[in-house]
User: What shape does this take?
Amino acid sequence: MRVLLIQPGFVEIYGSFRHLYKRGFLNPPLSLCYMAAALERAGHHAGLIDAEAETLSLDALALRAQAFAPDLIGYTATSVDYAQALAAARRLKQALPEVPAIIGGVHANLYGAEILAEEPLFDYAARGDGEPLIAALADALAAPADPSAPWPSRLASIAGLIFRDAAGNVTVIPPAPATRHLDDYAHPARHLLNDALYVRAVPRRGRVVTATSMTSRGCPYGCIYCATDALPAGRLTRFRSAANVLDELEEIVKGRGITHVAFNDDCLTLKKERMFELCDGIHARGLRFTWEGLSRGDLVSPELLRTMRRAGLVRLSFGIESGDPAILATLNKGETLAEIEAGLRWAKEAGIVTRGSVIIGLPHETRASVRRTFRFINGLKSLDQVNINILQPYPGTKVARMTERGEGGVRLIPTPARNPVDAGGQLRRFGSASVAVNDLTPKRLVKLQKIGFFRFYLRPRALWNNLKVAGWRVCFQDGVALLRSLVGA
Ligand code: B12
Assistant: This one.
């Protein structure tokens, strides 16, 4: 089977913040790379198009898809970019009307059955890990028709698959229990990517080609703004062995010559011993590269951070969320401002560039609590970079249910679509707000987001810190992107 996997273009959902997103956050579609590897291992031929990284129009995407001549097309989408996946699927249905299509990713995990019931563009939806599923589906579709085993019964053995039976009824096969043996999966098929498209500013190095990797999947916490625990694996966190991760790093660094890796784990330091092991292995295997990731203040120690720094860690991001202790306590994050502050300080002392992210518009938020958050981040000597998000009640999150009930004063205010594929308009988190909270209107939240960015980055300390690690050139270019985002150009 020739299976074409597609990451639809999505950056338009960020409005004017698209400049910033594309410069700083563009990631290879790792889930599709994993699935391509599984297909290749099963003897199928996989193709991958990242329409976002390649900035492909729908027509250009259709031409590329036709040239590949697929037998099956797979799309990935979060809830936020589902509208973009739909637009791509619609265009490709015109170009390749006979080719069946499957959709996977967060949105299909949450609403796979509803998608199939409503949307004839998709023939299948996927829940749970995509690696075994896509290989089994390709096998099933490739198998010669056997009258004693009609196709729906072949599909019925594929865990996690949602499909329409011969009568058009949606059939849901429950996902298998999430495997803990992530080492069994083939490493992502990076040979299908154009590495040069994924570039980001790396502290003290300028703009560098960046690979992404995940050493674990999932997160044991249940923060109210995150959808992770609504996914089939729930709060189960699955870890790859250090040796398996190191093998993949050898492929990236020695095999592909990529010298910066962004680890996309929900939290990189959940198991400290494994992180020490990983750092030792990086030295032992002579892997020379820089890296970055996400952690929590209460899951790091000065010793761990110094070890990670020596092994090449250059930037660590911490979720701060709110500078208001009472609001922070309601997020079910299980972390205090003092812990966050200590983690940031230790990271900075170890020579690591620090990044934090906050959310404004949380339940119980008021103008006064937003001010407290801004005061907190602006007062943190050890915080170099910040990301200020406006709360978006993503499907699958507790905060989405709270918003429906108006809990904590949050109300959903639908925003008009910005363009024809912007049906996810109400889910943007930059430059537009879909919620009102107590005395904060959506307009006020947007204004506060901009004020927050300006105030943080225009402080002499922030300017100097970022100039020191990024250099004039990158600082100027990123500064222009930030300004264009803030003034809405
Ligand atoms: C790393 C990460 C990112 C990274 C990288 C994303 C990337 N393109 O690789 C960055 C920081 C860029 C990011 C951005 C965003 N993210 Co994000 N992200 C994550 C995180 C922590 C891990 C995702 C991941 O890489 N998992 C590992 C890979 C291997 O697996 P996977 O993606 O889950 O896919 C598996 C299955 O779903 C399935 N599958 C996936 N696609 C397909 C397709 C087919 C055809 C099939 C058969 C199967 C299949 O198989 C895969 C492998 O087993 C998750 C939280 C989580 N625990 O899932 C949030 C999460 C997915 N992100 C989320 C959101 C909202 C976003 C943003 C929209 C935020 C924003 N407004 O800017 C953007 C979306 C940009 C985009 N389109 O990629 C939400 C989604 C909630 C929702 N209901 O939509 C999550 C769940 C976190 C949360 N806050 O709740 N994200």
About this structure: Residues 460-487 form the longest helix (28 residues). The chain has two domains: 2-172, 198-487. DSSP finds 16 helices and 19 strands in the chain. The radius of gyration is 23 Å.
